[in-house]
């Protein structure tokens, strides 16, 4: 079964993660995170399966995140509001997001990929 791989193609981290998956013979269904931004329900499912805090889904180093001054606003926002915000702009989402429908990783860490996707 192919992994859903939410990426921004010009992102260096996404390219590294994709290369790692390809080197380990994983089938990938590439999804452009900006052109096909996951909706709120999809994001909620990914978040719940990931076991991570919702704030880990935000691209905190991104220009849009800084522009909107989300560092100060997120703590006061509800989970629902945060999911709405993520679904409104793919550039706010940390990438890549990789999932097989059961497990989810956010970003690229080789050790994490080895333990989850090998």
Automatic annotation (TrEMBL):
InterPro entries: Arsenate_reductase-like, Thioredoxin-like_sf, Tscrpt_reg_Spx/MgsR
Xref: Pfam families: ArsC (PF03960)
Name of the molecule in the record: Arsenate reductase family protein
UniProt xrefs under PROSITE patterns: ARSC
NCBIfam families cross-referenced by the UniProt entry: arsC_related (TIGR01617)
Family membership: Belongs to the ArsC family.
Source superkingdom: Bacteria
Entry-linked PANTHER family: ARSENATE REDUCTASE, PROTEIN YFFB
